[in-house]
Amino acid sequence: MFLRTLAFLVIASVSALAQITYDSAHNATPIGGTWCSGSQNVVTGSGFANPANLTFVYPKTTGISFSFTETGFYEVARYRMSGNGSSPQCIIAVVNWAHGTFTYNLNGSITLYPFGDGYQQIQSPCAAKSSFIETYNDTELYQSWQIFRDPTDGPKLHLFQFDGAPLPPMFYNSETPSMLPTRPLRNVSSPSPSSSVSKRAVPNSAPPIQRWEAAGFIAVGALLGGALLI
């Protein structure tokens, strides 16, 4: 009897998660599509990154962009700068791209699992190595998300990082996700299964610019209540 009741509760919890309510107070639209911050010059897709040769098309302005499909794929494009008050000439720029799959978690958070072919370019004119490109293969956890309908700008996506810090609000750029093919696009070693998420900020917020690292996912099990929908 106890096992039957427990199974019923688990099924009921999963069913409740699948029944997302779209209303003006929380989710005015589904999350599927392309979302862009600010002037919307940073947009996911072929106009931003070329993974085959590890290059970027630099946008006119900084910003972030997320694309999601209703079938569980995502892509993210980020272009951020960080100033240095004591050395104004030492501006650090980070251009970042990744894609993969995502899951809705039981507590309302979202986890992004990269394919492993992401990369980023870091430019720091005052550093010993002023510009370099490195692989970006980090699992990202967003504590919560909300979509509001702005009376002027329409739907706006709000993502909150693992620590609750909000990303810049993103405007609904396109109902059809602007994305590169949803599969690994360059030859890299297969990413190891994510067992931890770093408690550091992704390069979305500046200053300072910090990146997620694929180490330290230890606290996620407790944070998610020990359950991930994969």
TrEMBL record:
Residues annotated as signal peptide: 1-18
GO terms classed as biological process: 'de novo' protein folding
An example molecular function term from Gene Ontology annotations: unfolded protein binding
Location(s), subcellular: Endoplasmic reticulum membrane
Source organism, top-level taxon: Eukaryota
Bilayer disposition of the protein: Single-pass type I membrane protein
Transmembrane helix found in the keyword field: yes
Keywords: Endoplasmic reticulum, Membrane, Signal, Transmembrane, Transmembrane helix
Chain segments carrying region Disordered: 182-203
InterPro entries documented for this protein: Rot1
Chief location category: endoplasmic reticulum
Biased composition (Low complexity): 188-198
NAD recorded as keyword: no
Gene Ontology cellular-component annotations: endoplasmic reticulum membrane
UniProt family annotation: Belongs to the ROT1 family.
The protein's name: Protein ROT1
Species of the source: Multifurca ochricompacta
